[in-house]
Amino acid sequence: MQVAVSIAGPGHGLISIGRYMQLEPSDRPANLRCAGAGIDGRRCGGHAFAKALGSTAKAPHFAAMDHIEGCDEARAHSSAHDAIWATSPEGEDRIITRITLTPDLPGRHTRAASSPSLPGAADVQAGVRPSPTVRRPRRSPLRGALRVLIGRGYPPDYLISWGSRDPMPAEVFFVHLERVEHADDRPRGYWGRVEEAIRYGPTGAVHLQPRHGPRVVIPRATAMSLGLTDPAVLVGLPGRHILAVGTVRRSKTGHLYVLVNDRGAFTQVEQT
């Protein structure tokens, strides 16, 4: 796990392993919990701890031994297959991490979740050459990706895949809603914190408005499948962080908005 929850002290809330390592040992939070959630959305809260802080073989990370059943962080893991090789302009080989995002929905299988990823056009443009030992990329549910974005964020040269589309560098794929400036037909991961959530009367769609930037529009059928049309759920959305994979459109009035048509392309986490 790259992110955990500190439940005590001045730094309580989400903390990334990068931030944890920057702290002096005496200042590091000792009471950590898993930031994951079960298939029913219930928080895991398993006791977490830092591992491999001084290892030369493994990257530092958080771990937990008592995840609840179905915890998405228990499913997410790194392995020797997480890396692919790329050649830098200077001709030096280096390792690039490729992550395939998958829906949070239990029992939902997509090409991203079930099929091996083959090198695409973006791989060629990036100078990636597959290693014989690479069989699959690392997989991460959207909710786990959102926690990483809220924490330290992804290194810019990580490659992010969604569905069957060619991967993009993380700094291109993930866009904070405050930085959206123009329409874009490429499905990308738009994220931020919701300030207002409403059902738009004429269409029944759910509109999620951040403090700055375009609103996220979830059509009625998709919103219903996600349970977002329930008034009790809708009223609890302000203050939560969201990640939506969609395209940026321009309305008839000239306003930009992010359109999300796939129920598997949206996730949310509570601000801790």
TrEMBL record:
Annotated region (Disordered), positions in chain: 104-140
Highest taxon, organism lineage: Bacteria
Name of the protein in its database record: Uncharacterized protein
Organism of provenance: Occultella aeris
